[in-house]
């Protein structure tokens, strides 16, 4: 259904200072019921899409020797960007290397690239669009500090349109401005699409709750 545009033999992203307390153990298809329940019930994401784009990542805390699991996405350097399946304990990190993820679009002739800050933003947008992938390519930054890596990739392509879906907050909008300064009229900011919400997942959750509420009221 989709392919990563891997760049083999590439150096780990320069903006990642490796967290030596965390050791990558393994990544496998996403089957953990706790993670899937969190993604579908708390985040209102599609289980089918989560299984396509995400992996179940196992890692070890070297200080304690304890092993943990998280959901994650492979990046261009062969590392994994991970998040713990909990809203109470917010933990994000990168294992092995930090980098962007590039997902090839469905249509090779579409010269649009879509830029998202995080993997849940991308998956939220797919749910909103009732789509399994976008027509043009996608870049998932994983961190706004990956601007340089994203810009470097874009400069090597012949994109005609750059759509940014970054957060409606100061850091997100400042990063959007950086894209505008770097690429000028090619950039078409899309953050107003999900305003007044901070990010796409906030918007998706709010829409899902209001839809559920309307259904319950209509039954009553």
What does the average pLDDT come to?
88
Structural class by helix and strand composition: alpha/beta
| Strand runs, count | 10
The profile of the biggest β sheet is: 5 strands, antiparallel
N-to-C CA distance: 41 Å
Order of helices and strands: EHHEEEEEEHEHEHEH
Please compute the radius of gyration using only Cα atoms.
18 Å
Kindly report the spatial arrangement of strands forming the biggest sheet. Answer: 1-2-3-4-5
Helix content: 25-40%
| Apparent shape | globular
How big a fraction of the residues is strand? 15-25%
Number of helices: 6
What do you see in this structure?
With 220 residues, the chain is α/β, with parallel strands linked by helices. 32% of the residues lie in helices and 23% in strands. The strands form 2 sheets. A 5-stranded antiparallel sheet has the order 1-2-3-4-5. A hairpin with a 5-residue loop joins strand 2 (55-61) and strand 3 (67-74). The N and C termini lie far apart (41 Å). Mean pLDDT is 88; it is low at 1-18.
Short description:
The chain is 32% helix and 23% strand.
Topology:
Layout: E1 22-29, H1 33-42, H2 47-53, E2 55-61, E3 67-74, E4 80-83, E5 92-95, E6 101-103, E7 112-116, H3 119-129, E8 137-140, H4 147-155, E9 161-164, H5 170-183, E10 187-189, H6 200-219
Parallel strand pairs: 7-8, 7-9, 9-10
Antiparallel strand pairs: 1-2, 2-3, 3-4, 4-5, 6-8
């Amino acid at each position: 259904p989709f392919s990563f545009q891997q760049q083999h033999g590439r150096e780990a992203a320069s903006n990642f200072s490796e967290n030596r307390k965390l050791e990558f153990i393994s990544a496998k298809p996403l089957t953990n019921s706790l993670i899937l329940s969190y993604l579908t019930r708390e985040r209102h994401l599609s289980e089918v899409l989560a299984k396509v784009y995400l992996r179940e990542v196992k890692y070890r805390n070297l200080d304690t020797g304890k092993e943990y699991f998280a959901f994650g996405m492979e990046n261009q350097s062969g590392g994994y960007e991970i998040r713990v399946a909990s809203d109470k304990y917010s933990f994000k990190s990168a294992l092995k290397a930090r980098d962007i993820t590039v997902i090839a679009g469905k249509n090779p002739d579409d010269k649009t690239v879509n830029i998202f800050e995080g993997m849940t933003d991308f998956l939220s947008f797919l749910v909103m669009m009732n789509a399994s992938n976008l027509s043009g390519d996608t870049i998932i930054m994983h961190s706004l500090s990956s601007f340089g890596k994203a810009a470097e990739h874009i400069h090597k392509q012949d994109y005609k349109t750059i759509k940014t879906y970054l957060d409606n907050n100061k850091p997100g909008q400042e990063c959007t401005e950086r894209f505008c300064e770097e690429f000028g009229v090619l950039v078409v900011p899309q953050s107003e699409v999900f305003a007044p919400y901070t990010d796409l997942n906030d918007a998706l959750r709010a829409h899902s709750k209001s839809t559920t509420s309307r259904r319950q009221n209509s039954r009553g």
